[in-house]
Design a protein that fits this description.
Elements lengths: L5 H18 L1 E5 L10 E5 L6 H8 L4 E6 L7 H7 L3 E3 L6 H12 L3 E4 L16 H9 L3 E7 L18 E6 L14 H26 L2
Parallel strand pairs: 1-7, 2-5, 2-6, 3-4, 3-5
Antiparallel strand pairs: 6-7
Helix pairs in contact: 1-2, 5-6
Amino acid sequence: MTAPSEKGAEVGRRIGVGLMYGLWKPRVLGAWKVPVTGPVIFAVNHSHAIDGPMVIGVAPRPSHFLVKKEAFVGPLAPFMTRVGQIKVDRDTTDRTAITRALGVLENGGVLGIFPEGTRGEGEFAALRAGLAYFAVRGGAPIVPVAVLGSSDRPGRLIKALPALRSRVDVVFGDPFEAGDGSGRRTRKALDEATERIQKQLTAHLENARRLTGR
């Protein structure tokens, strides 16, 4: 199983730039912290339906997100595949998605993950172990990404989206290693890595809120 197309992801990034800046007012902070080359994992909080497309559009590198299979519907399905996004079945151990995601990292690409699994308050309160597995197995640093929008303000046409032309802040944090350096992938090691990740992501979110006043 080959990794998703890097060229496709770059096309997706360019489309995302146009859409995100056309519909909202993104303010991007800390993009310079993203490593210029090599495998990287974006760990993104998830409170809006636009979080993934927003990060894809404003990130300094093309990225491949793990996206729930329910989003691959109708004509959107082949388009999302063409722009390098990875369909994942959250109800099972989706080995195809895992292989493709690891392929992204092996090729030195950027993998995007919503570690909370589903859209919610975006507080990094309940992390799944998948993020730790990819970080340790793929040897990739994690860059925390906080997307802070305006979902609590009036003027929204769709409940899950910020109001059109409202400001959406995307704050990239400092890269960090999830593992302890041993390369161990035991359940205990991954649990410890998940705990480290949660602390780092929560701290980044708090710092992003201070920076943006959100």
